[in-house]
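Before our next group meeting I need something from you. Please put the record directly below this note.
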Amino acid sequence: MMNSLSGRLLILTVLFVMLAEVLIFVPSVARFREDYLLARLERAQIASLALLADDMLSAELEAELLDNADVYNVVLRRDDVRELVLSSELPSMVTADFDLRETTGWTLMRDAMMRLVKRGPEVIRVIGSPSREAGQLIEVTMDSAPLRAAMIEYGLRILILSAVISIITALLLFMAVRVLLVKPIKGVVGHMRRYAEAPEDAHRIIAPQAKVRELREAEDALYSLQTQLTQALKQKERLAQLGGAVARVSHDLRNILTSAQLFTDRIELSEDPAVRRLAPKLVNSITRAVSLCESTLAFGRAEEPSPTLTLFNLAALTNEVLEAERLAIGEHDVSLSEDIPAGLMVRGDPEQIYRAVSNLVRNARQAIVATGKPGEISVAARAEDHDWVITVEDTGPGLPPKARDHLFQAFTGGARKGGSGLGLAIVAELMRGHGGTVRLARTDGAGTCFEIRLPMAPAG
C-alpha cells in the first residue's frame, strides 16, 4: 500500500494536516493562556469588589474569595490610589511579571511556550485593566503550576482533535483519489495490457472516456498511438505478404531471365542487321531485369545480421571494391580513384562496409554510364575527432529532385531509370547497424557526393 499512489497521498495528507495543526497549536495555546490569566484577573476583581462593598468581611471569607479566584494577592488601583485589597501569605518570591495591557501576539506566544517548558511551580504577577472601568489597574499574584497543567490539558485536546481531523481528512482524500484518479489509471493500464496481447486487433484500442482533463489527454494520446501502431502493423503484415510473393516471383523470373541471357549471346552473332542492331538493347533490358530480381531477393531476406566489429585496413578494402568495378566498367570512359591513408584502420564489419561502399560506387558508375559521357569516381576517407568519414564522389549528372525526396527508401528512391532504389536503402540499413549514418552531402549538375560516418566509440 505504501508503494501505491493512493497510499502515499494518504500519508502525505496526514503529515500536512498535522503540520497545519502544529502551526495552529502555538497561537491557540497562547490564546488559552491569555484567557486563563484574564479570567483570574476578573475573578480577583469580583472578589475585591465584594470586599470593598462590605469592609467587615471575616478572614475566613477573604481566604475563600482568594481561593475561588485562585490567586494569592489582589492589588487594585482606583482614583490614583494603589490598594492591596486581598492578601495572603506567598509561598515564595515573585519570579516574573506579565502585563496583559499592551502585549503583542509574538510576546503571548513566546511566554506561552516558555511556560510549557518550565516545569517547577513559580509565583508570578499578572497585571491587567479592570473590566467595566472599575479601576485603573488590577494586579494579582498566583501560582504558575495550575496554569501550566491547564495549558498541557488544552494542548493535548488540540493534538487529539488534530489527529482525528487529519485521519478523517486523509481517509476521505484516499477514497476520492481511489475513485477519481487511481481507478481510471488502472483502467488505462488494463487497456494497455490487453492491447499489448494483440496489437493488431482494432477492437482492443482504448476508447477515451475519462472526465478528468489530464487523464482524458493521456487517453487521447494513447488512442492516437495505438491507432497508428495498429495501422502500421497491418501495413507491415501486408508488405511482408507482398514481399514474400514478390520474392517468389523474382526467384522464378531470375531463373527464366538467366536462361534468356544465355540465348542473347547467340543472337548477337546473327548476320541479320536488324537483329544485330536490336540485340544490345535486348541484352541491356535482360541484364537490368536480372539485376532488379537479385536486388529484390537480397532486400527481401531477413534483416541484416548485427555487424561483427573488427579493425581492418580501409584502403585495402576500397581497392577491392574499385578493382571489381573496373571489371564492370569495360569499355566505358569512367576513371576510378581513391584518397585514403594507407595505414587508416577502421572498426566495423568488413563485409558490410564493402557492400555499402560497393553500392555507392556502383550507383555512381551507372549514373555516369547512362549519360554516355566520360566521368570520374573518387573514394576518400579521413579520421575526425569522433568519427571515420568515407566519401564517394562522382562527376555524374546529379540526382533528380524526385529521387532526393525518398533517397533511402526501398523501391521509391531510385535515381536511375529502371533502378529499384534498393542500393541506398541497403547502405542506410548497414550504417544503422554500425551506429553510423549515410547522407547526401552534395548533388548538382557537377556531380554527387555521399558521406558515410562511422563512430569510433560504441553507442552509449
